[in-house]
Every structure is written in C-alpha cells, then in structure tokens.
Design brief:
This protein is 30% helix and 27% strand. It is α/β, with parallel strands linked by helices. The protein has a four-stranded mixed beta sheet. A four-stranded mixed beta sheet has the order 4-5-3-16, with helices on one face. Helix 1 (25-37) packs parallel to helix 3. The longest helix is centred in the first third of the chain and has 13 residues, at 25-37. The radius of gyration is 21 Å and the shape is globular. Bound molecules: shikimate-3-phosphate. Shikimate-3-phosphate (S3P) binds next to helix 5. Residues 26, 99, 169-171, 174, 195-196, 316-317, 339 line the site of shikimate-3-phosphate (S3P).
C-alpha cells in the first residue's frame, strides 16, 4: 500500500499532558505467536493496534489459527498446540514488519510443510541471511532472492545448534529460539551484545523454560506452552517521541502512564537525564515478567549527547527520536549504529535528509549521524518539507523536530505512523494545545 498522505506540523512552544500510548508492538507479536503454538485459548488486552501486528495476526490466521478481536484492543487466540500450524494455501504477507517475517521464519522452519513469506517493498529490501543461515544449519531449507524476501521456507525436523550472530538482533535471536522449540536438543544463541529480551520473558510466561547465562540464551526442544490471559503494556518506543519532545521544549511536562519499562528497552530514560531533562520513573506492576509504570519528563536543560556503539542495541528504535531531540538545541552524535541502514528505511540517510529539509544542521556518518540544534539565541530552523520515506519512525521524528521550526512544516508519507502508532497526530494536537 503506498503511504502518501502528508501532515502539517505547526510550531509549538511546549507539550503538556498525561497520556497512554498503544500496546507494545514487540510484545504483541510474541504473545500472538506463542499463543498460536500453545495449548488452549489465550486472551490479550491492549493488543498493539498498528499495521505490523495486524500482519502477524493475518499470517497466523492463514496458518489455521482462530483469532477474534473485540473492544479495548482485545485479541483472543485459540492455540493449535505445538507443531500444529496448518500449511497455508497462499503466501503469508508480513507487510512492513521485519519482526513478523523473521520470527515466523523461525516458527515455520520447524513445521513440515512449505510456506512463502512475502513483504512490502521496504521489507523486500531488508537482509534475511541473518535468519536463513542459522535456520538452514538447523535443517530447514530456505530459498530467497539474493538474501531478501520472498522467503520460501521448507520446514521439517530440526537439530539444535549454538548460534553466534555477528550483529546484535532480537529478531535473529528470537527466530532461532522459536525454531529451537521445535528442535531436537538444546539450542543456544550467544549474542555479541544484549538485545531486547521479550521473547525470553514471554516464553517463561507461557510456561516454557529458558536458560540465560550472560549473553547466552538457551531453549530445549519439545516444550509445550500453555495459553495465557495478559494485558500488554504501552509501547516504550512510541512513548519515546513524547518523552523526547518534553525534554527538548522549555515549559514541557509529559506523563506517560502504563508504559512498558523492560530494562532492555528503556535506556532512553538515562539518555534524557544526560541531556538535562528531569525524568521520573515509577514501576507500578510487573506482568508476565514485563515491568510497566509511569514516566514523567520535564524540560530542564539542553545538553549535548554522545551515543557510544555499546549503547546502540538498547536504543535502536529510539535513535530517530534522539535525533529529533537535538533539532531543538544542543547536539547529538551517534556512532556504531550502521544497523539503522537496514531498518524500514535507511534511517541514517532518511533522518539526515529529512532534518536538513527542515533547516536543521545534520550530517551522515557511515555508522551514525550528528545533529546540531540551533545555539541559544540563534533563532529557530526555518521548517520545510520532510519525506518519511514510508518509515513510521521517520514520520514521528520529523514531526517532533518540526515543532521547533519558525514556520509550519509538511511531513510527506505521514500515514506511515499507522505501522506502530495510529492516532499519533491526534495525540500531538492534544499535547501542544
Ligand atoms: C525488534 C527488534 C529490533 C527492532 C525492531 C523490533 C523486535 O530489530 O529494531 O523494531 O521486536 O525483536 P533487530 O532485532 O533486527 O535489531
């Protein structure tokens, strides 16, 4: 589907308000997949409303899973039981969602039928050798076009492996662990750096056993999972845009309630403190191993930030928001983030081009970027037209950056926000009022 609509962003002095953000996308994908493999009927509330998780549900339906959706973002998944997905009668469309495609490839590797995973133009450009290689070592056969989707997965009996990915990736780790559930023996992934651990926490919540020893994560094959009733916390990566805007704009005060606070996702909070914001965090509950709570951010000072390579895995989806932070003043420099080039867009190129189009000083590096906001007393960027390049996080980053401009700006391809955050622009309107 072409994402062509434009949004106009009117400059704003500050953001104030209390809000909730849509359910966490990473967690929702995993709960849906595990529920499909579990015995019994799982129910979730606050299921992520964006197009990415809809793609996961559509693929699962195509694999014979009965799924119903109700009010309050309720989703009921009737598990088919371990290894019991049904051979689909056509391609499985992951849309824009790398998580859907990579995690499903892991699940399908262990099912004794052939299935084809396809995606949109963006997903069809993204690298898949990182999942194909380990899944083939386990015994599946996967056809691709030069390492890109469509993937034709010939699944079957799998053997356990130890996998040491070169690049930190929660999607790769999760694909191998999900395949490992179907393998003979104990499968281990040893990561080069820690990535988000929702799969590990979700597996335990669904009754599975997961071994964690430093950067090594193991699962044994043949485990049965049991259905669960769970509420999904708000998506920290969606909240990030409001937290950053509150840190950037003097006089701002934003409270995000019921947001996921998994430590493998929340490194942005310390980054905002380093920048000079006042940040308060209250963990109110933990469900299925996932802490959640209230985050309050107030502008205080405007600083400079250097994001080091070691910090990147913990901030991978927040780096576009962090770039928007510096658009208002201060400076942000990011290194060791070449993975951004293979996300929904080449996020290094897209960010720098979009910020420059808004009149903000930004430069690309091979593995990162530098954004220099206007020095105090130097006036505001002029504003302009930024192209989201079909990437939801670009659209939201440019919207936050454009709040600090002198004149209204236009974000082309703004409806990409529907991938993770339907209603983003309506919430923005409310918070700037
Ligand atoms: C995700 C992992 C990250 C992240 C993506 C969601 C996940 O990707 O960028 O938005 O849900 O596992 P990589 O694991 O490829 O870094």
């Amino acid at each position: 589907m072409p994402l062509t609509s434009a949004a106009t962003i009117t400059p704003a002095r500050r953001l104030r308000g209390r809000l909730r953000v849509p359910g966490d996308k990473s967690i929702a994908h995993r709960y849906a997949l595990l529920a499909a493999l579990a015995d019994g009927r799982s129910s979730f509330t606050n299921f992520a409303p964006g197009a990415d998780c809809r793609s996961t549900l559509a693929c699962l339906r195509h694999l014979g899973v009965e799924i119903t959706e109700g009010p309050a973002r309720a989703v009921v998944v009737v598990g088919r039981g371990f290894g019991q997905l049904r051979s689909p009668d056509g391609p499985l469309d992951a849309g824009n969602s790398g998580t859907t495609l990579r995690l499903l490839a892991g699940v399908l590797a262990g099912h004794a039928f052939t299935s084809t995973l396809v995606g949109d133009a963006s997903l069809s450009r993204r690298p898949m050798r990182r999942v194909i290689a380990p899944l083939e070592r386990m015994g599946a056969r996967i056809e691709a076009t030069d390492g890109h989707p469509p993937l034709v997965v010939h699944g079957g009996p799998l053997r356990a492996i130890e996998h040491r990915p070169e690049t930190p990736s929660a999607q790769v780790k999760s694909a191998v662990l999900l395949a490992g559930l179907h393998a003979d023996g104990t499968t281990t992934v040893v990561e080069p750096a820690a990535t988000r651990d929702h799969t590990e926490r979700a597996l335990r919540a669904f009754g599975g056993t997961v071994g964690v020893d430093g950067l090594a994560v193991s699962v044994s094959g043949g485990q049965r999972l049991s259905a669960q009733t769970l509420t999904i916390p708000g998506d920290f990566s969606s909240a990030a845009f409001w937290l950053v805007a509150a840190a950037a704009l003097p006089g701002s005060h934003v409270i995000v309630e019921d947001v996921g606070l998994n430590p493998s996702r929340s490194a942005l909070l310390d980054v905002l403190r380093r920048f000079g914001a006042r940040v308060q965090v209250d963990v109110t509950a933990t469900e299925a191993g996932e802490p959640r709570g209230v985050v309050t951010v107030e502008h205080d000072r405007t600083g400079s930030l250097e994001i080091a390579p070691i910090e990147v895995p913990g901030l991978i989806d927040e780096l576009p928001a962090i770039a928007a932070l510096a658009a208002h003043g201060g400076e942000v420099s990011v290194r060791g983030a070449s993975e951004l080039r293979v996300k929904e867009s080449d996020r290094i190129a897209a960010l720098v081009a979009g910020l420059r189009a808004l009149g903000i000083d930004a430069d690309e590096r091979a593995d990162g970027f530098v954004v220099r906001g206007p020095a105090s007393g130097m006036g505001r960027p002029r504003g302009g037209v930024a192209d989201a390049r079909g990437d939801h996080r670009m659209a939201m980053a440019f919207a936050i950056a454009a709040l600090g401009a002198e004149t209204p700006s236009r974000i082309d391809g703004a409806d990409a926000v529907g991938i993770s955050y339907p209603g983003f622009f309506e919430t923005l309107d409310r918070l700037v009022r």
